[in-house]
Amino acid sequence: MTYLNSTPTSANSSSSQPQKGMSYNDAKSQGEYDLIPKGTIARVMMGIKPGGYSDPEKGWHDGYATYKSGSEAVYLNCEFMVLDGPYRGRKIWSLIGLHSPKGDQWFQMGRSFIRGILNSARGFSEKDTSEAAVAARYISSFKDLHGLEFVASIDVDRNKESGEDKNVIKLAITKDHKDYPGHDSGYYAGTSSSSSAPWAR
Could you tell me the pTM of the whole model? Predict the structure, then answer.
């Protein structure tokens, strides 16, 4: 069976009727879309592309982590979708470090970022040490991060492979920040959750 020389037809079409085509000449070139300006604050939804790697001793279950054989690095391969503002619908891809053979700096940065995401999503300040805040910073699996909504500061980095600039997210905006929506009220930006959650108020 050959597909290259076949022409799909619609059940409602007739060979005697002229076929209307689609022109892509006026479409933008790939990569032509402008970067989101550095420092833009936006609410985003986090998604994780499972890499199939688990390490139960470290609490990495469900295969959400990714292991890169060349560098022996372990990370979360994340996608963040902007939920509001002029860039609504845009997607940003970033890595969250879990392990590097070069040292623990990447791992510690990743832990700090995840802590910030949880604080932002669940409406707690960095300095809050209440029982509810402590509970809010606990996850049973990286699966708990998948689908979380939080407030992020969008950054710009240079792609090491292509040399081109790209958007990344490295910082979550928490309740004690002036740019956090409703920072002076009881509002929190994250996903609604069951009132039975230990951090719910």
Answer: 0.78
